[in-house]
Write a structure and sequence with these properties.
Layout (H helix, E strand, L loop, with lengths): L11 H8 L12 E2 L11 H9 L14 H15 L10 E4 L2 H12 L7 E6 L3 H9 L3 E8 L5 E2 L6 H4 L2 E7 L11 H14 L2 E5 L15 H7 L8 E6 H5 L7 E5 L1 H14 L5 H11 L3 H22 L12 E5 L8 H12 L1 E2 L1 E2 L16 E5 L4 H18 L1
Parallel strand pairs: 1-11, 3-4, 3-6, 6-7, 7-8
Antiparallel strand pairs: 2-9, 4-5, 8-9, 10-13, 12-13
Helix pairs in contact: 2-11, 3-11, 4-5, 4-10, 7-8, 12-14
Length: about 400
């Protein structure tokens, strides 16, 4: 067996199952889960129709690079969304089976494990970053979020001797679980560091289309263009239809950026077997070509967050995030419960599931930035989320 597998920690949801293993939730309440970030809004009918109408694609082996039509569609969406000059669909764009598998695979492509490599990960973070680093033979280096700066990642805290060993930097903007968004100054700092030390930046942007301010979140490629880095050197952006279009089961996304890295990534994926089904490609073309359903989806989230957030603010330290569909809340305002005890008792007494923040972070530099926090995924319809919020308020007040 690969000994590197022994370094992997249990996934957050495995920890949650263990935490709840001996708990019998209160039968007076129907179960509500805010634990998993799985979109629950209905899939737009036209995407399902496009998939069904192209099932003849199942009779063909797909190419790893994907169809010209899909890559051109993605290029056009990037140009519309971010105001970019045209990307080369043949060399700068690659369809992938969801951003999760591509985020993992990129580390296997770019890491040289002989070089005592480090991979920088935000803390808290999406667990794939850590697993990808470890199984590529590198060591994760966690950089903590700063609550005083809207949970921005404190890259200024990283010593020069660490940067010298970094080969890959994962970031998530809008962030999971905090919802924070990088600004142009943040990007300039990271691009300058990448140029100085030669590491690759993997920008996870799967939440980019769910936001609550008038202006859309700044994208990685957009920031590069604004800063005169139009070749996207050492930069790969990841996007997905899962959250944007409510199709997590479609497993469809793309990567875009540095053509030299993309060439090696395509080589890796050709052997790895990362080709997208032609039927899924056709449905993806339909999804990327339509913005009306995205606008409607975003409005539903905004309406939901505007109703739920004020309720929870009565008992928790929580604020409307910049973007994404999570609320990241501190739970020790009215009681001294830890995040795990809070989640366990809430489940037992009110049958509501939330994810302890410490499960989404690691102890690093003397602290766990997820401790005493919980993540709530407001992915269900408004009525269910409001019911969950009212139960959380009642539970938290009972602790005072």
């Amino acid at each position: 067996m690969n000994p590197l597998l022994n370094q992997l920690q249990p996934y957050p949801f495995e920890k949650l199952r263990a935490l709840f293993a001996d708990v019998v939730p209160n039968p007076a309440f129907s179960p509500i889960s805010l634990g998993i970030g799985e979109p629950k809004h209905p899939t737009p009918p036209f995407i399902k129709e496009a998939l069904a109408e192209h099932l003849n694609g199942l009779a063909s082996y797909p190419s790893t690079i994907g169809s010209d039509a899909l890559r051109k569609t993605i290029a056009a969406w990037l140009e519309r969304r971010y105001g970019l000059p045209p990307l080369d669909p043949a060399t700068q764009i690659l369809p992938v089976n969801g951003s999760r598998e591509a985020l993992f695979a990129l580390a296997q492509t770019v890491i040289d494990p002989r070089a005592d490599a480090l991979v920088i990960c935000p803390n808290p973070f999406y667990q794939i970053y850590e697993g990808a680093a470890l199984l590529a033979g590198a060591t994760p280096y966690f950089v903590n979020a700063d609550p005083a700066r809207n949970f921005a990642i404190d890259y200024a805290s990283v010593p020069a001797e660490v940067w010298q060993r970094v080969q890959l930097l994962y970031l998530c903007t809008p962030g999971n679980p905090t919802g924070s968004v990088l600004g142009l100054d943040d990007w300039k700092r990271l691009f300058d560091l990448s140029e100085q030390y030669g590491f690759v930046i993997a920008a996870d942007e799967c939440y980019s289309e769910i936001y609550f301010k008038p202006e859309a979140p700044l994208g990685a490629l957009q920031a590069a263009q604004a800063l005169g880095r139009g070749d996207y050197a050492r930069l790969i952006a990841f996007s997905s239809l899962s959250k944007r279009s409510n199709v997590p089961g479609l497993r469809s996304g793309f990567v875009a950026g540095d053509a030299a890295i993309m060439k090696k990534f395509l080589l890796y994926r050709t052997y790895h077997g990362g080709a997208m089904s032609p039927s899924v490609q056709s449905a993806s073309i339909a999804a990327w070509n339509d913005e009306a359903h995205v606008v409607a989806n975003r409005a539903k989230y905004l309406d939901k967050f505007r109703q739920v957030t004020p309720l929870l603010q009565e008992v928790l330290d929580v604020a409307l995030p910049d973007a994404g569909f999570y609320l990241w809340a501190r739970v020790d305002r009215l009681a001294t419960l830890s995040d795990t005890d809070f989640a366990r008792r809430l489940y037992a007494e009110y049958n509501v599931t939330v994810l302890p923040g410490s499960y989404l972070a690691r102890d690093a530099h003397g602290s766990n930035p997820g401790r005493n926090m919980i993540r709530m995924a407001l992915v269900a319809e408004v009525a269910e989320c409001l019911e969950a919020a009212n139960r959380i308020v009642a539970f938290t007040r009972s602790l005072a």
